[in-house]
Design goal:
Elements lengths: L2 H27 L22 E3 L12 E2 L4 H13 L4 E6 L3 E7 L6 E9 L4 E8 L8 H15 L1
Antiparallel strand pairs: 1-6, 2-6, 3-4, 4-5, 5-6
Amino acid sequence: MSRKSKAIVIGALAVLSLPVAFFSSLSFFSRKPDNLGVANGRLADCPASPNCVSTQATDPVHHMDPISFNGSPEEALNRLKAIVAGWSRTKIVTSDDCYIHAEFTSMLFRFVDDVEFLIDPDAKQIHFRSASRIGKSDLGVNRQRMTEIRRQFETR
């Protein structure tokens, strides 16, 4: 390979690596939101941006139906923990007898999505909220993730 060809290849690689470095640095500066958790029996509302889904949202852009369960709330919570723990690049941050907060990290840019689950033992439902920490659009990733978690929960 000639010097000119090597220089072109090195230049192209440098230009292509800039977006990766930029987006990766965004994930480094993103911080855990301060509105996570349960307040008055509810998870936080989704922001106006479309990068969030929640069973407690009332608008069709953000709303998803809760996950129904049979058996005890403890069994449902344990099944849910096993499913979440099975996902790569996922960490359960907080867990108690009716709530889970997990962080899901994307592979390439290391974006973090906060996913929360809240067991409603009376209704035998699991409410959830899945939201990206940064950006406006998530290209449907949060909705796809929660659809897959629901499928796994219903088939276990």
